[in-house]
Amino acid sequence: MSAVLAILSGACLLLGSFLLLTGALGFLRFADFYARLHACGVTETLATALIILGLMLLSDSYLPPFKLLLILLFVLFSSPTASHALAKAAWNAGVRPRDNQGKRDLPLPAGER
Amino acid sequence: MRYTLGMAGALALFWIINSGHYSPLLLALGAVSVLLVTWIALRMDVVDKESTPLHLLGRIGPYFLWLGGQIIASNLDLVQRVWRREPRYQPQVARLPLPQRSDICRVVYANSINLTPGTLTVELKPDHLLVHALSEEGIAALEAGEMSRRVSELDR
């Protein structure tokens, strides 16, 4: 049983690490500020969830999984707020979204400047 | 009264999960700290429908499950966009209606948009949202309004 759990946990941790790498790679490859924020979204949702799930499977008593679950909940509540704060700060500072080459500004909906 | 009890119950549960000790002394200390925090919250007048959203408890579970599925799907979509030889995305900015009336549902909606990678709430105005998305499909999915409808149903 514990061998199965160890393998499952290892798979979750490996997949989570791959997603962390993907987030970092997207952050480097995407062209403008807003697209890069999207790439960070991978890191803060599924990657975090998989790594915490992997750690939960490893615990040998019943309390640590609940604590890990609380950590996951806090991350899932705070990270979207943080990325919204970043996006709004950038918008208010005059940063406008650009196309996928980072060269031309995107058309904005009527009424936005 | 139900909000006060709800808050005290949530605090007690939180304390037990974080403690894991069940000796009478520590349990008594825990009870005292829960009472103290509840009393302070009452004096601050922050114990209400908004800080203790008991009415959402029954409906939030199914919503989280649905949102989890959306998060996984949009993560996979973004992963394949990142790993292409030429990162492929067509960013879009759009304005979306915001039919939710209560603050808490608006926050849930805006945060849900942010939690699904590929869509991002840039501005939250009284009657609309400004959303940045990495693809036309992202905007189209939001405009179809399933997420908005599900969030609105939380508050009913």
Structure description:
The complex is a heterodimer of chains A (113) and B (156). Chain A has one domain. Helix content of chain A is 74%, strand content 0%. Chain A has three helices and no strands. The longest helix of chain A has 30 residues. The termini of chain A are far apart. The relative contact order of chain A is 0.13. Chain B contains six helices and three strands; from the N terminus they run H-H-H-E-H-E-E-H-H. In chain B, strands 1-3-2 form a three-stranded antiparallel sheet, covered by helices on one side. The radius of gyration of chain B is 20 Å and the shape is elongated. Chains A and B meet through helix 1, helix 2 and helix 3 of A and helix 1, helix 3, strand 1, helix 4 and strand 2 of B.
Topology:
The complex is a heterodimer of chains A (113) and B (156).
Chain A (H helix, E strand, L loop, with lengths): L1 H28 L3 H26 L4 H30 L21
Chain B lengths: L1 H18 L4 H20 L13 H27 L8 E6 L5 H13 L3 E6 L3 E6 L2 H9 L1 H9 L2
Antiparallel strand pairs in B: 1-3, 2-3
Helix pairs in contact in B: 1-2, 3-6, 4-6
Oligomer: heterodimer
Overall spatial form of chain A? elongated
Adjacency order of strands in the biggest sheet of chain B: 1-3-2
Poorly predicted sequence stretches spanning 5 or more consecutive residues of chain B: none
Q: Kindly, what is the distance between the CA atoms of the first and last residues of chain B, rounded to a whole number of angstroms?
A: 21 Å
Biggest interface between chains = A-B, 41 and 39 residues
Mean pLDDT of chain B: 88
Count of helical regions of chain B: 6
Distance between the termini of chain A: 60 Å
Strand content of chain B: 5-15%
Radius of gyration of chain A: 18 Å
Overall, the morphology of chain B is: elongated
Number of strands of chain A: 0
Residue share in β-strands of chain A: under 5%
As residue ranges, the low-confidence spans of chain A are none
Q: Please give the number of β-strands of chain B.
A: 3
Largest sheet of chain B: 3 strands, antiparallel
Task: State the share of residues found in helices of chain A, binned by percent.
Answer: over 70%
